Amino acid sequence: MSYCVNCGVELDDTAQSCPLCHTPVLNPNQPVDMWGPKPFPTEKGEVPPVARGELALLISAMLLSVAVCCGVLNLFLRAERAWSLYVIGAAVMLWLWFVPPLLLRRMPVCVRLVFDVLAVALYVFLISLDLGGGNWYWHLALPIILLGGAIVLCLGLIFRGGKRSILTTTTLIIGAIGLFLLGVELFVDRFLTGAWQPGWSLIVVTVCVALVIPLVIVRRVPSLREEVRRRFHM
């Protein structure tokens, strides 16, 4: 039995170099066994990846079976409310979230976000059918969903251009939250009273602006930016 002259690890008779420090094995009293079995596999084994089409088919079958079973059960029980619409809507939403990106490998980020927004809009639409809320869906829920989707789409396009720093990302997200909540109050007020009366959203926007301004200043001043990165390990 040989030992590595550099690190002292025990060597197998078939080892041509130390497996720990990669020092060549030179032992004239015990030549390297070139024909004996290796103590470890010499070929790299890899598990073949699952085909995207098969995975998409599996997810589609699972979601379809859940939706069909709940729909049939709802009809069989003769329930007064179509509670199965909630399950069917959730299945459709999950299908739009997962299956198209699997089938379309190079789907752009904007197209994927559009699918996500449409899935959420369809799910809420099915809920409105059960609750008889077509009015609040078209005049309140759908505008809020589209506003949130537009903001997320803009953020996705901005972040797609390259890697952003934590300061820049935080600044954009805080600004987007303030803009979204301002729009939410706008749609709620117009739906309930017919006129926009800004109140709580202005408080949120003020807080967001108060947070964004220091972040912008820190980002613009190199010395402050480096100090923040050093102290917060960013």
Keywords:
234 residues; mainly alpha; two-stranded antiparallel ribbon; membrane; DUF6320
Descriptive account of the structure:
Pfam families: DUF6320 (PF19845), Zn_Ribbon_1 (PF13240). The relative contact order is 0.06. 66% of the residues lie in helices and 2% in strands. By secondary structure, the protein is mainly alpha-helical.
Helix fraction by DSSP (H/I, runs of at least 4): 55-70%
Q: Give average pLDDT, whole number.
A: 83
Q: Gyration radius, to the nearest Å?
A: 30 Å
Which structural category do the helix and sheet elements fall into? Answer: mainly alpha
Give the arrangement of secondary structure elements:
Layout: E1 2-3, E2 10-11, H1 52-77, H2 84-103, H3 109-131, H4 134-160, H5 166-192, H6 200-220, H7 222-232
Antiparallel strand pairs: 1-2
Helix pairs in contact: 1-2, 2-3, 3-4, 4-5, 5-6, 6-7
Quick take:
By secondary structure, this protein is mainly α.
